[in-house]
Structures are given as structure tokens and as C-alpha cells.
Amino acid sequence: MNTGHLQMIIALVSVTLTWRDFAPQAPPATQPVSSLLLALAWNGQKYEAPEPLTIPPDVEKSDAYRQWWRVGDSRTIEWTDEAGRRCVADAWGRFKDERGELRPLIPTVSRYRADGTLEARTTNAPNGRPCEWSLFREDGRAKRIEVINRLSGTPGTPFVEYVTFYGADGKKEREYQANRYGIVYIEWFYDAKGEIDHWNGSSKLNVPPAASQPAGEAPSSTGPRATGTMISVTTFRDG
To answer: How many domains, in total, are found in the chain?
Structure first.
């Protein structure tokens, strides 16, 4: 090996080390949810909502992610989770937040089963907070559960405000509506036409949970029932 080739190899190694060691560190692309645990106001039973998809710290530290952050273009970032499932983040680029700081813009993160069907998808707000996420049935199209995370417009945000449960036919069957303290104060039940059939309700709109509230098991559809028109139901809305 002549001197020229050796100098070229040294230069390439130097460039590689420089990029890996000094490439700008991106801020966290996605943020966790403060709490997923909900309690039904009328019987104290607990329900833990499914977690949204986030980009793991080891992926954010990877060469592929750091290279994207340095360029800031539109591309997909893929990785395999601990269970061997393929995960895909749709990276749209970078933007400046209200403080003038650059932040990653990654509106969706998806997870796929081994057969290629969609298993879960999370939609993020520009600040990286998950605003909506869903779990899908085996066909990858029909939803099983959908969670809405309220990010603004009322004190106490962000918090999980709605959890919707879908039947095998893909139609909405039941829905929780919660306040900022994690109390589900309305449980809606839907008929085959997608209209409200009946509902469980409570007056605990903005009341924190009592310290002595018993820990329940899996939520059930039992509890006080009331029927009414949509006009009377809307009096239960939070904020």
C-alpha cells in the first residue's frame, strides 16, 4: 500500500469519526403520555389505555436517525422492536417552535405485524406529543381501540380524554370520556347504527379521584344507567 492510499484511508476514517461524534443531537422526536390509567366514576373500576407508539431513545441515537436530523428532509425511518415487529416513522423534516428552536416533525409512527398488516398507529402534534393513537384488528384496517389525547383548550392538558372501543365489524360500540384527573365521567354505548343507545354518567366533571377510591378490576358495562337526548347529555361535557 503506497503513501497516497494510506492517507486517503486515514482521511475517510477521520470524516466518519467526526460525523458520528459531532453530528448535532436531535431533541426527542416524540414524548410520552403523562398517564394512561383511568377510573370509572360510578364504581371505581380502573382501565389502563394502550400506550402510544414513540421513537425509542436507541433509535434516536442511531446513525440513520442522526443523519436524517442533520439533513432534515422527508423520509421514513424504520427499526425493529424487541418483539421483532417492524416500526416506521414518517419524518417530514424540521421546524422552529415558538422559542425558535429546531424540532423534528414526525406526524405518524406505525407498527406492523410479521404478516405486514398494520397493528398500531400514532399521530403526533408538531410538538411531538401524541394526540391520537389506535390499535387495529388482524386485517390491519378495522380499529379495535382509539385513544384521543387532549393537548389544549382546557386546564390540565395534556390528558387522555376519549377511549373508543370498536366491535369486530369495525363499528363503534362504547366510548369513555374522561377529565384531567383520569376520571371517566361518561360511558357511551352505541347501537348497530352508530347512534347513542344509552350511557352511564357521573357529576364528577372536574373532581380529582378520592384517595380511598378502590382499585377495580376490568371495566364492565354495569353501573347506573340513564337515558336522554343529546341535549341533556351535553351538560356533562368537560370544559
So the answer is: 1
